[in-house]
Write the structure tokens for this entry.
Amino acid sequence: MSIEIKVPTVGESISEVTLVKWHKKDGEWADRDEVIAELESEKATFELNAEQAGAVKTIAKEGDTLNIGDVVCSIDTDAEKPEKSVSSEQPAVGKEQATSNPKPQTTNPKPQTDLKATPVAAAIIADKKIDVKGVTASGSNGKIVKQDVMDALNNPGRRPGTVLFARNEREQKMSNLRKTISRRLVEAKNTTAMLTTFNEVDMSAVMDIRKKYKEKFKELHGVNLGFMSFFTKACTYALMEWPSVNAYIDGENIIYHDFCDISIAVSAPKGLVVPVIRNAESLSMAGIEAAVVELATKAKENKLTIEEMTGGTFTITNGGIFGSMMSTPIINIPQSAILGMHNILERPMAVNGQVVIKPMMYVALSYDHRIIDGRESVGFLVRLKELLENPELMLFGKDPVKSLLEL
């Protein structure tokens, strides 16, 4: 019997998907529930599984755009399951090795003397301490010759195999996810009164805490103590104090939230995605770090669900991991604000009339001026700065002594 595998319904607003990759070739066997293909909608990448065991008969091709309900492939459930061959269960070896060395042996890595190069080329490589990965071999049988080494020395930084002054172009179809990112960014610029305000944060206190407690934190909670938990926790307090920053416009109404669903911008293989940490205001530092790790891992493996990427009330993006010193992030609509983190640089600061070197970070808040005024945007950043420079305030959201005295 042959059964059809169709594109499943993946969301109310999604009508088409793209077949990104086949995991099973035409005629190949698939066990029940085994992944046979990878599909991509405008919001997420998801896997297509075999509903029954059998031989796969591919119908759609990689790169095809399919509608919901279209047939992707069929599975012949009456096909005979092939037996596993010996070669698929053990590494391939030469005939002589298979007969004369039946038992596995441990070998040491080849020394540099086994470099496939002419004597002159090898001598120059050793003398100049050249990384052979940056040398393009032009000799017979892939051997590096003297001219190859000289080319690498005279053109440092050039990728191996590239031709000087080449003007090649290549065309690649834009993925559904990239199309969605492009559309939403343009929509955000065109439909919001976006403005950005900046401040700077002395990261000394946060860095001291991480240095002092990171090993104990990892030992007890099983996750690293990163910067994201400090910023997320600080943002939840600031958002509660400035609710308009945590709200959005719905027609002629403003929707306020008494909770903080924090979207975290993550750079995934196929583009920028923003999975959501639900009720971040109720999570501990360890809980936030665990959520960040889980969502970031899923993003890198293209396993985020649509539910995990919808419904955020505020977004945090960290351009600092790429070396960004300052930027103006674009609002993640329909949200009304986004916080941009940047890299930490040691800079001379005036402290009590003295010049002191401090680890400083610029922070940026892009916001929709239709709902958030200058008072709210600046107040939010000032409060964020206060909480990060005095992390003990995040225990109760205010000065511990005042909390103790109920002031």
In short: The longest strand covers residues 354-368. The longest helix spans residues 204-221. The radius of gyration is 28 Å. The chain is about 30% helix and 25% strand.
